[in-house]
Amino acid sequence: MVIRSLVKIYEMPKLRNPVLVEGLPGIGLVANLAAYHLIKTLDSRRVCDIRSPYFKPLSVAGRDGAVKYPVITLYYAYTSPEAEGDLLILYGNTQPITFTGQNELAETVLDLASKLGCRTVITLGGFSTPTPSEPPRVYYAANDPDVVPKLDEMGLVKLSGRVYGAAGVLVGFAKLRGMRGICLLAEVKGVQLSPGSARRILEVLTRLLSLDIDLTGIESHLAYAEENVLPFS
Description:
- By secondary structure, the protein is α/β, with parallel strands linked by helices.
- It has helices spanning 30-41, 99-115, 148-153, 166-176, 195-209, 222-228, and strands at 6-9, 19-23, 45-51, 60-61, 67-68, 72-77, 87-92, 120-129, 138-142, 157-158, 180-189.
- It has one domain (6-232): PAC-like subunit (Rossmann fold, 3-Layer(aba) Sandwich), CATH 3.40.50.10900.
- Helix content is 29%, strand content 25%.
- The strands form two sheets. Strands 1-3-6-7-2-8-11-9-10 form a nine-stranded mixed β-sheet.
- A hairpin with a 5-residue loop joins strand 4 (60-61) and strand 5 (67-68).
- Helix 1 (30-41) packs across helix 5 and helix 2 crosses helix 4.
């Protein structure tokens, strides 16, 4: 029997053609920094918090003595009428540490996204390389061949190989539900924290979804990530 995540719902908003954007911690914290920037820039609000039994079994005490714990939050943000749709943003300080946990989290997130009318999932992440290009190249994989020509026209590179964690699992599970899934990975030097790669992947995302977002100031999120995300990664 699979033990399910605990979901605390704050609001189930009415959204216009929502697109789920995944931004959980991974290589270079590319997805995490990008998602955090979306949350702050778009004045996002919480849909729910998710606590998985497959998170690392720990809490972290900060310099102020306050205890922080592993958690993933689903946010929503309204966008302009010109955009492809409103956003659901999956952000957190951790990922499940087992295959079973990754699968269970994907099911939980897609259940919630489906109830909110989501039909498209876009996952973000870093692509580790010793010699990243300038600007960093962005690789893609998609579960719908109809979207491939558009991604090719944008100058993205087809990805060949495995995609671990939420960035890979969500796209695969989305296909089973008849949802379009796209994975975007920006080059990172090794595993270094990379706000530049986060900005590059947001440039691609904003163009893909016709979003109007100020991309300056991503570097300012590094201090927050180092204190609130890295201890759980």
